[in-house]
Write a structure and sequence with these properties.
Layout lengths: L3 E6 L3 H10 L5 E7 L3 H11 L3 E2 L2 H7 L4 E4 L4 H12 L3 E4 L7 H11 L6 E3 L7 H11 L6 E8 L6 H5 L14 H4 L2 H11 L4 E8 L8 E9 L5 E7 L7 E7 L2 E6 L2 E7 L3 H7 L9 E7 L6 H15 L10 H17 L3 E2 L4 H13 L21
Parallel strand pairs: 1-2, 1-4, 2-3, 4-5, 5-6, 7-10
Antiparallel strand pairs: 7-11, 8-9, 8-15, 9-10, 11-12, 12-13, 13-14
Helix pairs in contact: 4-5, 6-9, 9-12
Bound molecules: nicotinamide-adenine-dinucleotide (NAD).
The site of nicotinamide-adenine-dinucleotide has 26 residues, from helix 1.
């Protein structure tokens, strides 16, 4: 095999981007497309001269592709992903890999024991700025972490965005808001670079800036092993917004903002300096270095190409699907803590969170005024 035959499921916003990217790629060919909206499936199958399906099970049963890329609303990532593994297909799933931790575990379990490739579309892992931050942290440049802060409020969305799909920003259709849709990228990078916290205390504004029933504003306090604390702030209701990621360590401080990483190294580690300096108000002398990158890397094309290389040549994945559980768990922890009004330990109790989500779905009286209706029944996802 010199090219991966790909079936693309979900032909909406992100599906359309993937279609355009695939046109310019050598390692992949579009072998089939699928969308529950028949007109979309028909139009795209004609445009790309490949079979079009309205039912992903039928596409999988026909074995017209080696791999599937799942770009549907999130609940279907789990059900279609499991069906794809069970029928012997490699899977590249959009972020988040599932809506909640228990569904992530089901999806991961379906992959376990197979020799199939399982990737997740964490395209921001290809951004040279985040790769550099990870490398600096992994190389121990900051020493022991003291404090982590990420303000990521550049995800501004209008009401028209939320009204554009029946599934968006509802408990039944999406299972959450900014933590499930926009922030999986940041939560993935956060855990990829800094590891997982042991405690999360979340404060979420539900429908605070938009007419929606899920969270659109979040402030979360986190505790990490070794005494480090963190704060994660996000919203889709603030403009112009900020993206400032700051990590303070014993050996220095890293700030990423405006596309530039500023690394300030302490010539003497802060913990040692504060014990040994004879002066009351002295600070350790520092050295400052900055890193700026021209672009944001290969993003979606980079992840898709790497996924195909993993199938064709066994290349290691940049974003293994299994790692997608961590960003989901972080987001679930923030929401769960906010809903029950107290801090939660991490790992969270996936069954308890799933049951809370079921309550929210069952108790919802929110009437969605959407301009485009898509499938909203997530029942299969809950088994
Ligand atoms: N990686 C990224 O940068 C990125 C960007 C945008 C969206 N996403 C993810 O992609 C997914 C889709 O988001 P979107 O904005 O494209 O949504 P969308 O509503 O624009 O498109 C979803 C499409 O899936 C179809 N669909 C729904 N249920 C289906 C099913 N069971 N089988 C087949 N098709 C089905 C819908 O008809 C629709 O055409 C979400 O999980 C989202 O988080 C990722």
């Amino acid at each position: 095999m010199d090219r991966v035959r790909l079936g693309l499921v979900g032909l909406g916003n992100i599906g359309t981007l993937h279609l355009r990217n695939i046109e310019h790629m050598d390692v992949v060919e579009l072998a089939a497309v699928c969308d529950i909206i028949p007109e979309k499936a028909k139009a795209v199958s004609e445009r790309y001269n490949c079979p079009g399906y309205t039912d992903s099970d039928a596409m999988l049963a026909d074995h017209v592709c080696d791999a599937v890329l799942i770009g549907t609303p999130h609940y279907f990532h789990t059900t279609i992903g499991i069906a794809a593994f069970e029928s012997g297909h490699h899977v590249l799933v959009e972020k988040p890999i599932s809506v909640h931790k228990a569904d992530c575990e089901r999806l991961i379990a379906a992959h376990e024991g197979t020799d199939l490739v399982f990737g997740a579309m964490f395209n921001q892992r290809t951004d040279p700025s985040y790769l550099k931050i990870k490398q600096l942290v992994d190389d121990g440049e900051l020493g022991q972490f003291l404090r982590i802060n990420w303000i990521i409020t550049t995800w501004f969305r209008t009401q028209a965005y939320y009204d554009s799909g029946g599934w968006r920003a509802t408990w039944a259709g999406e299972g959450g808001g900014v933590l499930l849709n926009q922030c999986p990228h940041n939560l993935d990078l956060l855990q990829w670079i800094c590891g997982m916290p042991t405690v999360v205390h979340g404060f979420c504004g539900i429908g605070k800036r938009h007419t929606i029933e899920v969270e659109d504003e979040v402030t979360a306090y986190m505790e990490y092993p070794g005494g480090c604390t963190g704060v994660f702030i996000t919203t889709t209701g603030e403009a112009p917004g900020t993206n400032r990621f700051e990590i303070a360590g014993d050996k220095g401080k890293l700030v990423y903002e405006g596309g530039t990483i500023t690394l300030t190294r302490n010539k003497v580690p802060a913990g040692e300096f504060l014990r040994t300096s004879p002066e009351s108000f002295a600070r350790p002398p520092t050295l400052v270095e900055t890193f700026t990158f021209e672009d944001q890397g290969r993003q979606h094309t980079g992840i898709l190409e790497n996924f195909c290389d993993a199938i064709l040549t066994g290349a290691p994945l940049l974003a293994p699907g299994e790692e997608g559980i961590h960003s989901v768990e972080l987001g679930n922890a923030m929401l769960y803590s906010s809903l029950i009004g107290r801090p939660v330990p991490v790992p969270i109790d996936g069954a308890a969170y799933e049951s809370k989500l079921r309550e929210l779905v069952a108790g919802s009286s929110f009437v969605k005024e959407a301009t485009e209706r898509t499938e909203t029944d997530m029942g299969k996802s809950f088994g």
